[in-house]
Amino acid sequence: MLSVIPNPPRPALPIHGSTDLFPVRRVYCVGRNYRAHAREMGADDRDPPFFFLKPADTLQVVPEGGRAEHPYPPRTENYHFEVELVAALGRGGRDIPVEIAGAHIYGYAVGLDMTRRDLQDEAKRQSRPWEMGKAADLSAPIGPLHAAGDIGHPQAGAITLHLDGEERQRGDLSEMIWSVPEQVALLSTYFELHPGDLIFTGTPSGVGPIARGQTLTARIEGVGSFSLAVA
């Protein structure tokens, strides 16, 4: 049986130190998972995080330590950056116990959850879904995966973002309200998780706008870094 249109390509991430690829199934994101950022966004830092999704084809792969051009999306004048640790699942399941959730993670990457904040804020005011704000084309820049077998499971380390060389975000992975295994366990109570799923695990405080012509540099200690020039 033939497809009536060309099959869309399946997004895949390069793996640091390997010629193999990691095919991506779904992209989950967690909101308000650092106390300072939760307060920054007007939430109580005791509230549990919540999840939303980006389409897998919003990923923009950037080489390790490299630089890529990133298009400023249409229909916004308030485009924000959010640097995040990304966890990639090598195993799936439902109702995964938190004690074994870490074993489901294949590896980690540096990611950015780019957001049309004006559209997101309007969606919040009207109690509408967030996709117009969160799911712009290429709104999930990401670096190569680093296998947990090589770097372990990062539980602490600086996570930073610089805008034109000036530091705008700084936090530590240890400041997550819910750890990565806890996120995997909680998410698996809502969805059956599968190999190839990604989880953007939240951002520290300091999120803000980027303008055309500016450059972002995202870095996570022990995981990697990359830069984006916003075209």
UniProtKB/TrEMBL annotation:
Matching InterPro entries: Fumarylacetoacetase-like_C, Fumarylacetoacetase_C_sf
Domain Fumarylacetoacetase-like C-terminal, residue spans: 27-227
Keyword entries, A-Z: Metal-binding
Listed Gene3D superfamilies: Fumarylacetoacetase-like, C-terminal domain
Protein name: Fumarylacetoacetase-like C-terminal domain-containing protein
Organism from which the protein derives: Methylorubrum suomiense
